[in-house]
Structures are given as C-alpha cells and as structure tokens.
Amino acid sequence: MKKRLLFVLVSIGISVLSNAQNYRMKVTMKDGSTTVFQASEVKDVTFDDNGSTDTAAVEYVEVAGIKWAKGNLRYVHGEWTVADCQWASTQYVSGNTDQTLKADYQNSEYFSWGIVGKDAVEGSWCNVPGIDLTKFYSDGEATVETEDFDAAECGDLAKWATRGSYRMPTKNEFDQLVAQASQQYGYVTTPEGNQVYGFLFTNPAGDVEQNLEPREISLAELETGLFLPAAGLGYYDNITHAGRSGYYWSSTPIEGTTNGRDAYELDFSADEVGVSRTLRSLRCAIRPVVNGQSDTSQDTYVNMTVDDLNALTSDRSCVNLTINDVPATITYIYNNDVYMRCGDSAIRLSSTGLENVVSKGEVCIGTVKGDFKLIDGMPVLVGNDSTEASLTNFMHFPGGSEVGPTDATLGEIVDSQHRCDLIQLTGITLVENEYGIVYTESGDTQVMIADGFGVNAMPATIDANAKYVVEGIFASGNPFMIYPTKTVAYIPDEAENLAAFKQIPDGASTRVKLTDARVTYVFRPFGETYSYVRDASGAACFRNFNLGFDDEGKTLNGTLAAKYSERCIETTDSTNGDSLTIAAGEVPQPIEKKLGDITVNDVDELITVKGVKIVDSGTGYYRLATTEGSSDVFVSNGFYLNGNLFDSLDADSTYDITGILSSDNGMTIKLTQWFTKSK
Questions:
Q1: CA–CA dist 610, 455 (Å, integer)
Q2: From CA 371, how far away is CA 377, in angstroms rounded?
Q3: Which of 87, 157, 250, 628 lies in the 20 to 30 Å Cα band around 114?
Q4: Is the pLDDT of residue 235 over 50?
C-alpha cells in the first residue's frame, strides 16, 4: 500500500549546483534533534504517500447539524488535501452538461470505497461485507485492526488522508442532510468564468424547500451553506456525467450484502437528490465531515406519519412511525411483513415483531421505530435495534368489521397510487405470455399479477376475452406488481341463479338470471329498501331497487344487470327491468331448519328454528341454545320490531324463532316477527 513520491531538491528550497559538495542538508526534527547530510551524498528526497500531516486547519460549514468540510477530498500529484473552496474540482466542467472525461489518476477527486492510499484513486476497493470503517485494517481482508496510519490498507479514506481531522459522512448523516436542509440546484461562477453546477444545501428558516430551477449561487451563500459540485462518477478510465450529476460516498456499507459489492452514497442530478446504493468499485467524490462529532442522526428519531413516509423518495434511517390522529388497519400479514392502511395511504412493516402480535383487521394506534427503505417501489419500515422497545407505545384492538380491499383502477395503479395497500381491480382482462407470466395492461404499461404470497392465485386457464377480479397487495416496483391475497376470480357474463351471483367478488358486476324468485321479506330503514329474495338455489338481499318488487310475495323471472357489494345486490348504471317480469303471489313461508344445520349457505334466507332456548350472553347479545348447550347462532331485533320481548325471557322455556339469517356480526337471525314459546 505504501507508495513513494519523488521531489527534486529545488522543490524544497535547496539549490543543487555544480559544486553541491560544498553544501550540507540539515534536518531538524520536532523534538529538537538534528541530522546533517552532505549534499554530495544525497541522490534524491522521497516522501511516503501516507496522508496529510497538517491536522490544524479544520474548516467547515454546519448544515443540518453536521460540520461539513469546505471542499472535496482530493489527490493531486502525490499530495492528499481537502480543497480550499467548495466549488473546486480537479477536472472542471463548465455549464450544465453531461460530459465524459478521461480520468486523470494524478489529479483526482474520484475514489473507490474502503481502500486507503493511491489504490483508491486507481480503482482497488474493499469487498469485505459489513466492514466497519470507523477502524483501520492492515490487511485487504479487514481482519487485522490497526491504529497505525502508515500500516493501514483498508478504512475511512478521508480520515486516513487527513490524519484524523476529517472522516467520511455516514448514510445517516446524508439522510439527515436530505431531510433537514433546503436544496437549491444551481451553479457557482469561478474567477475564470466557469459555471460549476451542483446542489446548495442550507439550513431552512422555516419548512424545508427544494428548488430545481437553476440559478447562480453567490459566494456569500457558500459561507453558511454546503455546495456539492456535480463532479460526475469514475467508471473504468472515464469520468461520466460530469457537470450533470454528483455522487458522494458515505462510510456505510449495505447491510447484509454477502459479497461486499455495494455501499451507500448521496447522488443528485438536475431533478432529484437522494441516498442510494452503488458498486464499491466505482469511484465517487468524498465531501468529508469534521472528525470527532458524533453521527447526530444515529440516535435522533424523526416522527413521521404514513403519509410522510409515502412522500419520501429515498431511504431514511431512524424513523418513528406515528399513528395517532387517524388509526391504522392491518390489511394483510405474510411471513415477517405486516401491511397497514392509514387513511388514504398504506405501508409495509418488515421484521418489526408486529407480525407475531397483530391480526388482520385489527385497528392500531401508537408509535413504531425503524428505518425507512424503498424496496421495489414500496414504502417499507424495517425493524432496527430500537424497534422492539418502541412497541410498548403501540396498541392494537379488534376491528369492527372485516377489512376490505380498496377499489382501484388500472390508471391509479399506473400512477403509483395505493402503494402497499390491499386493492381490488374489477372487470380487467388478463394475458398470459409465452413464459407463463400473467399481466393486465393500461395503454403501454403492463401490470404483472404474480403469486408472491403463494396462495395459488391463478386460475387453471386464462381466457383473454373474459373479465376477472384481482384482490391483492399493490407492490409497485418496476414493472408494476400485484400480489394476490386470494384466488383471482372469473366474472361470468351471466350468473345462472342467486347462489352463483353471490359467488362473484365483492364489487363486481354482471347479469343475474332469476327463475321463480320470490320476495320473502322487505325492510325499509331510513329511506332505504332491502328486499330479501329466494329462488331454488338460495337467497339474496337486493338493496334499493326501484323496479316494483319491493313487496313480499312478488315473483321475479328474467335477467337483471346488477353489482354485488357488501353482501348485497345493488343497481348499476345499466340496471333496468326491460328483461324482467314481476308477478304478484302469496308470501312464501319460512324454511324450517334445525339449529345445528344452519350454515353460511343459508344467509339471507327466511328461516324458522323451533324448540330452542334464548340465552343472554352477558354482552347485550342473545345466543340460541339447545338443551345440550349454547350454539354459535345469535338472535336480534335487527329489523326494529316494536316492543322488547327479550325482557320477558324465561330461562326454562324454549321458543320458536323466525327471521332472516345474517352474517353481519356472526351468524345472527334477525327477527321478522317476535318469537313465541314452543308448544
């Protein structure tokens, strides 16, 4: 690792003349000792390439609570320095251009990651996974730690080159800079007239602002702001994107990288700033920070809502997800991932421990600490060392009803709305390509349907002319992805009876065929109309149909366009009675069922159960029971019959119950008439 730099004697103020033997070289050490050489005996003078020894002149600007050097680290003909002004560059590019330059390894500010010395200039790099750059190592495998700068081969290049005066910034500090500093894209005009483009970061007086309209940056602004030139990126023997983009190394490797290929860096172009990852073998610039200051963002957590996290465009450490004003609902759980909806936004929580304590449908409030990451386009809060302790401030409660998907359109998906949310696409076509990949499309944009949760979601065959309903998590990404949470459902052109219509997905529309379907009961609460209808296959509830069959006993034949929504059949824009005949008839009698034989297939049916007890469950609900004990079927005055006969119940008596079977709050018989004692 040790290289040597040759200086002629003239460069150190010694004139080598033809009679040099008459001169002596006297070297005085810091401890006062001296060494004398005859000039005639000196062949040359060399200096070890082991970093600058000038640690006194530490200058900085403080932005976002971090002390940044006033220039980039640079290597100029064997000397390591920090540039004396913020816009200084070893290879000037004037104007907002995107140039490719030939790399100059003797005059450079582009370094690969983790290696110290000139090897970092020429492209050697450290491939040790998870290496800690707060330490130096005397071997390339980073197994032997050292505090000797001269012996170091791996470590923090800025710290090594400045003998500890500065160090490389961490990813956390870059995150803090992006989150807390206002940003102005623009240029500094040099004394030679060059326009050096880059980003100016300043401490905001109020809210953080970002201005991408380029303007000139004044020298006065550089006194208190941080200006990073768009120096470009070292790639093989070239410098690419010079004048257009900037790439600045952090000292933080990618967590969990097994092959040591990547590390975090701050990058920007004319239209964005963010913290990303890139190959350690590429050569980025380094803007050092003052050594000795703590990584202030390491323990500083910023409160952010789900909406705030959805607005982020880059990773961010130390986030305190705060859910208070609007409770969140758990929409789906898969392995270590919990999907949560809060208002109009959603987020995925990964490896936080919540997957072990919450259930789908639960409502949550409180706070969770973690690190924010954009993973395949999804906003994700990933657990860290502080997450487990933070869960003491997180509460979850049973939800009032089953959580349902958000109705979405393909256009909204393509616009990246509903990221991480449980969504439903209704009435879409599916295509299976030659590789077995299933997708739907909006214009030129394809949205993949991938069985990421392993629910065997795909139908056995895909009909390109049919309509389908997909319910799942929108994973965003490139390409756009939807991971179904249940089997992709086919929507028939016409359901052959009521039972078949109730099998189509919630929110879907089609035609239903009615054959001798008879109205069994009509309920009219608060200006609405619920008509319960029975055919040979089963029963269903029609909500707010104004077609003349809202009287008990009416008989229906024909077909009807309708929508299935929230366990009711509703009208659509194309609903009419043109293909329907309605005839008067006798009111049908309830179907007698034994208590133990009642199933979900009987929902919406008018039934009678005889000879059962009615037991107060102690929670305001009444449960049906036989002489052998309680059942899971309840009874209620859900249709608001006059009076309250529940007050007159006799615990020793049995009763005959008649009503409509509902699944709103478990299996419940809503009384259509008051119960009577069994004979």
A1: 41
A2: 16
A3: 87
A4: yes
